[in-house]
Amino acid sequence: MTSRSDRVAGRRHDDLAALARRVVALGIAVCVPVMAAMWLTEAPHDPWVRWGYPPLVTFLAVFAWILVRHPRLAGYAAVISLVGLEGWWVLLAVARVGDAQDAASAWVSLWPTPLLDAAVCVVVGFLFQRTITAVVHGAAYATVMTAAVAVALWQRPDGGAYVWLAARYGVYLGVFLALLLVLSRAKERVASAVDRADRAVRHAARMQDMAYLDELTGIANRRRLIEELGHQAALAGPDNPIGVVFLDLDHFKQVNDTLGHDVGDRALRIVADVASRLVRDGDLVARLGGEEFVVVAPGADARQTARLAERLRQTVPVELGVAVGTPVTASFGVTALRPGESPDAVLRRVDALMYRAKSAGRDTVRPEEPDAGR
User: Cβ(302)–Cβ(245) under 8 Å?
Assistant: First the structure.
């Protein structure tokens, strides 16, 4: 049986990956209108913007759609998109240096696009790649971008002075990459600590399950029932009735003797399942032992508790008849937990009521008389 802590911990990694996808998709959603505005203002005098931005915007929109609608393909799409964008920014940088009138205007034309976008690509690489892969990828890209810009500027007659600016940009990009590495390592250490804590929580939850769940049926065991009755006894009162139902399968020993203990165990699991389905949210279903089960129903008055017992009385034989081939009936005792009453006391009372139901012919519900506790 999977505990709630297992399910929550199992979802944490998926939640972080989904957050990364949403962040990148949101970034693209912000960038697309900006690029459209740039296209409107710069396309008339910049052929790279005029012819390059429409397919680039389409490419980014498709990438965002994959991130949102097909998350299983996000990793592959991210790598392909990164390589494509990185190649585009390198090509655009070299082309703008070559098209500029002089080295000064060439350097100005590289800001903010494409040099700033190169740094964005390095960041995105850390969102979708393992740290070592992102570092190698980022270092290679920073080297290629820096070298391409430096060579393009060096080829300009007046570009020698700007080569050092390109080299300085490469150093800054390297420092930026190193900071990302430090942050990523710190994130991994935090994630590792959180994972260890999750494993400890899951282990504790499994230990608690072993302590409070019945091994055969998966419902609450006697220990859990005793704790629940003690807790509810402190809350019980005229405005907060606590119903208690005790059921014992009739002639269950004959089932084990004639059909075998495997069938008997299956019958017990079916009873637990039926009871768990018929009770309300917040009610507790427990196996007291053997073929005895108890339901604790907070907020249920005498009439509601008796109706619950009657539903169980009618449903259990039908379900057992279908599953194990014999409609085993049950006898029921119904009472209300008294304020401050001990678990043993209420169990003795409701157990006596159940035996009165058996003495009356079995397959019946025996509620407590309204004035029995007065």
Answer: no
Distance CA 166, CA 146 (A): 6
Q: In the structure, what pLDDT confidence band is assigned to residue 46 with cuts at 50, 70 and 90?
A: confident
Q: Residue for token digits 């935090």?
A: 190
Torsion of CA 167, 172, 176, 181, to 10 degrees: 60
3-state secondary structure of 244: strand
pLDDT tens, 286-337? Answer: 999 999 999 999 999 999 999 999 999 999 999 999 988 889 999 999 999 9
Q: How far is CA 368 from the centre of its chain?
A: 45
Amino acid sitting at position 260: G
Q: How many CB atoms lie within 10 A of CB 301?
A: 12
Mean confidence (pLDDT) of the chain: 90
Q: Which of 373, 333, 339, 366 is nearest to 242 (CA)?
A: 339
Residue located via tokens 């390592």: 185
Q: How far apart are CA 339 and CA 254, in angstroms?
A: 39
Say what the pLDDT of residue 206 is.
Answer: 74
Q: 365-367 and 330-336 as β-strands: parallel, antiparallel, unpaired?
A: parallel
Q: What is the pLDDT of residues 24-35, one digit of tens each?
A: 899 889 988 988
Cβ atoms 214, 286 nearer than 8 A: yes
